[in-house]
Structures are given as structure tokens and as C-alpha cells.
Amino acid sequence: MPKFNVAIMSVVSPRSFAYCTGAGLSGLAFGIGLQKYAPDIDFEIYEAATQLSEIGAGVGIQQRTWTIMQAMGIEEDLLKITEHGEDCSYPIVQRKSDQAEGVEVHRIQNMERNYSFHRAELQKVYLAKLRPRQVHVGKRLASYTQPEDGTGPIELQFEDGTTATCDFLFGCDGVRSRVRAVMYSQLAERAEAAGNAEEAAELRALIPPLFSGGVVHRCLIRKETLPAEAVGHPAFNHPGIVLYGGKNMHLITYPISSGRILNVGAGISFPGKEGVPYQGPWTRPVGREEIVKYFEGWEPDVQEVLKYVDGGILWAIHVTGKLPTYIDGQVALVGDAAHAMMHHLGSGSGQCYEDAWMLAQFLGHANITKENASVALRVYDEIRRPFAQRVADLSIRAAELHHFNGPELAWLTPELSATGTAMTDEQLKGIGEGTERIRAWRDHSSLIEENAAAMRRMDEALAAAA
Ligand SMILES: Cc1cc2nc3c(=O)[nH]c(=O)nc-3n(C[C@H](O)[C@H](O)[C@H](O)COP(=O)(O)OP(=O)(O)OC[C@H]3O[C@@H](n4cnc5c(N)ncnc54)[C@H](O)[C@@H]3O)c2cc1C
């Protein structure tokens, strides 16, 4: 039974919180977390889209993140929509493929399990866990106003002209976050008012997402549509990830939807374009020809996969700049709004879940009240911001390794790379081992221990604030 039974957005209860914006992976996971850890906190999710639908493609969840799924009680439901049961620690096969005859660079034998999902199926499971009345669709946040003295409710203004109030606002609204835009405008205004024009300019520069310099074409191949000769082809039969890499490009494949679908991602980087505004829509449908032309001359397995790609969706990958804070008063940024990162490490959503899990547990702390909940936000920022920003940096390094880039391979042109003889065995080994090392933190860290330390830090901070 909830401690209080309060009206939607009401502030009558000292433990009434409202929570807002974005029913993406972060928003839904945070809602599930609040239901579990803070059942006496009221929350509402406001989602801009009129209908909740994920653009279909694969998303991986690694063992570290799986800990959260277990703790939140959704493991069983998720196991029903992935083929991977207990044994899902398949090696990642890394190849150099931008040459007539490809070579295996490395087999990443880490024991990290990787659970692969179709995003739409994942979202369906999360939604089923939330009580439907808590997700309001068609509610695009335009702005918010929070009282300067930190007392009293925040007013939310939606684009449809309606308003609502809440005690705390969590911006789970993705890389183009409106909450971040409002927060950083307000921080900049305050810096200006204090005479710090340079700081104000730096804060404003963090509002828009930044083009990462890379795009990815995300495609799905339904195995039932494959002719018999393709079904038996090795390119379609590795149970885990195959990473076909080359200069400035890669093709990644892994099965999703219990093995019925092969997820294919074709990533291209455009060196020198990092941070340069991207021209054109950030996502758009692409035809097969547009994808295939990048991979001319690549090894036969890549051609085999591409033969059955029937177009896909292009994503221009945008990231969030390195923010100096995730919080302002009673408002916090969560997930991609705080730290959208490159996709090469497959850690973006993991970091979203880590935010959501920590915040839900902090807000569910027995000693939290509406009056001291800002302490939870402060500790969240103190722990999660440096961590997520480090993972974002590792994701940039992973992109370099996948695309045979980075300072050590600046000399390698696409033409040289295509000869297949420009790199020594030692250099190839260096790329493979580097790729393995960069993933090792997930495998060799314990989220359970980190979580226990975070809870201890929260106890200390609450005691100090008492
Ligand atoms: C191509 C690609 C591949 C990826 N692959 C992986 C992977 O394999 N593994 C992995 O862990 N991560 C991966 N990621 C990252 C992962 O998808 C993201 O980190 C994650 O989806 C972010 O979730 P989110 O809920 O924070 O944001 P989003 O999913 O963007 O959700 C934000 C929500 O907020 C809503 N919204 C936006 N503005 C407003 C507003 N003003 N008011 C109200 N609602 C609003 C949106 O409609 C949306 O529903 C990938 C990302 C990309 C782009």
C-alpha cells in the first residue's frame, strides 16, 4: 500500500513527487524503478509522442546492466524475448574486412554476457510493467519554471498550452532534451547576471546535441525470408556479435528476436566532421543501394550479408556535450539527455539504466522527504556524471578502434587499408586487444558493489544535511 494516495501532480503530500518527460528507455526504466523502490512517491510520465513506438532495431544489454534487470524484477519477462538464456557469453568476432579477403583480428573471449533485443519488444515489456495511467502521451514539454528559493512546485508548460506542477522534474527526454535546453539557458542567464559572460557562452554551447561525425544504417534481416543457401552461410550463423571493420567503417551483425532476425548495423565515420552541424534529417529511411556502395571491395561475408539487406534507417549519431552538472535545484537530467554517447561500445542504454536505478533507490531511501530530496539529486550528480562521461570517452575510443582510426593509425588511408597488406600482424593484434580492453570495465566491475557504495554515500550526505 502506498504511504500516501495523492492526486496527480498534487503537492499535498510531503512525499509526493512528479516526474516528467520522456517515455524512452530511461523514462520507462525510471518509472519501473520508482514503482519498486519508492512506492509512496507519485509520478507521472509526460511523453511528446502521441503513440509509444520504437523504431525497430537491435539493442544489446550486457551483464553489468542485467544486474539492474534482475534487481528490478524484469529478468524473466526479458528472457522470453531474447534467445539467450543462461549461456549467452559468445565471443565477439572481430575481423578486418575492407579487403578482398578478410582476416580475423581477434576473438574477444570475455565472459560478459550480452543479451540482444528488438527495441520495440523491450519497450513493450517495460510498458506492461508500468500502470498505464502514469504515461501521458502527446505532451511535449515546452518549458518549466522552478521557484528561485527552492520551495514550492515547478510549473511545467507543454506545447499544447496546458500546464502541470510537480515537486521534482526528471528530464528523460533524450539527446535533444528540452529540459537540458531550459536548464542550461537558466544557468547561462545566472552566469551572465553574475558578470560571467564567457561561462554563460560555454553553458549555452552545451544546449544543442553535437554531431559525432558518424552515421549508422540500422537494418534487419528476417531469417525466414532467406533462401536455403543463405541460411547455412556462416555470416548468418554466429550466435553472437560479428564486427566486420575497415578504415572509417564497420558492419556489425547479431541475432535478435530469439534468433528470428539478424540485426545489421553499418557505421560510417566522416573524419573532421565531429561537432560540425549535420545537414539533413537525423533519421531517415535508406535504400539498399545507398548502404551497399560504401562496402564495395569488402570481403565476401560482408557482401553475403548485404545481399539480403532491404534498406534500413540512417541515424546521424549525435552526442551530448560534457555537462558540468546534471542537476539544477529540483530538476535533474537522466539518460541521453545527460550523456548521449557514441554507440560503438553498446553502453548508451546501460548508462541510462544505471541513472534510473540509482535515482529510484535514492528517492526510495527511508529518510527522504520532499524537503531533503535535493540531496539525492546532488549525490546522483556527484556519482553518475563522472562515471557516464568516462564511458562516453571510452565509446569514442571504441569507434576509433572499430574504424581503424585514432592517432596510431592516422597514416592508414582507405586505399592502403584495402590492400590488406599495410598493417602488420602486430598492429592488427593491437587493435583487437585494444577493443577487448575497452570493453573490460563492464566485465570486471561489480555494479552491486558500486551500488552499495553509492547507498553509503547517500546515507552520509543525508546525515550531513540533517
Ligand atoms: C544507432 C544507435 C544504436 C544504439 N545501440 C545501442 C546498443 O546496442 N546498446 C545500448 O546500450 N545503447 C545503444 N544505443 C543508445 C541507446 O539507444 C540510448 O542511450 C537510449 O535509447 C536513450 O534512452 P533515453 O530514454 O534516454 O532517450 P530516448 O530513447 O531518446 O527517449 C527520449 C523520449 O523523450 C521523448 N521526448 C523528447 N522530447 C520531449 C519533450 N520535450 N517532452 C516530452 N517528451 C519528450 C521522446 O519522444 C522519447 O520518447 C544506441 C543508440 C543509437 C542512436
UniProtKB/TrEMBL annotation:
Family matches, as Gene3D superfamilies: FAD/NAD(P)-binding domain
One BP annotation, GO: secondary metabolite biosynthetic process
Superkingdom classification of source: Eukaryota
Protein's UniProt keywords contain Nucleus: no
SUPFAM superfamilies in the record: FAD-linked reductases, C-terminal domain, FAD/NAD(P)-binding domain
Organism this protein belongs to: Polyporus arcularius HHB13444
Keywords: FAD, Flavoprotein, Oxidoreductase
Official protein name in the record: FAD/NAD(P)-binding domain-containing protein
